[in-house]
Amino acid sequence: QLAVKENGLELQFAEGIDPNCLSDSNSFKVERYALKRTHFYGSKRYNREQMTIQDKPLLDEKTVFLDLPEIAPAWIMEIHYSLKNQQGKSFRGTVQHTVYQTGSKQISAR
Q: Which of 1, 17, 82, 91 has the lowest CB atom count within 10 Å?
């Protein structure tokens, strides 16, 4: 589950996350970019930007908050993650979405 907040993204996973894996700088990468609409299928990625993750606290055992100071509406935003569950099993993936507007509720990092 994904929720866009005023100051970042809240990601909820299906299983509990090992809190120690969040200290790894490669646990999350977030980028945003635009596409060019044409009558052809596909597009190059334009205005690519790596976003700075200020902090990434666990809100509960399954939910991580990505503190993104420069979050704003974006045509395409990709979140790449590489984590471990509470049993130590690695899992990774990518979430691609559009940010139409940021949420009104700001979350405070613990």
A: 1
Output the pLDDT for position 44: 83
Measured distance CA(78)–CA(3) in Å, rounded? 14
Q: What DSSP letter does each residue of 56-107 carry, written as one string?
A: --EEETTEEEEE-TT---EEEEEEEEEEEBTTS-EEEEEEEEEESS--S---
Q: Which helix (H) or strand (E) holds 5?
A: strand 2-5
Q: Are 19 and 12 within 8 A, CB to CB?
A: no
Say if residue 36's pLDDT is above 90.
no
Q: With beta carbons less than 8 A apart as the criterion, state whether 101 and 73 touch.
A: yes
d(CA 91, CA 84): 6
Task: State how far the Cα of 102 lies from the Cα of 46, in Å rounded to an integer.
Answer: 22
Can you tell me the distance from the alpha carbon of 65 to that of 35, in angstroms, rounded to the nearest whole number?
27
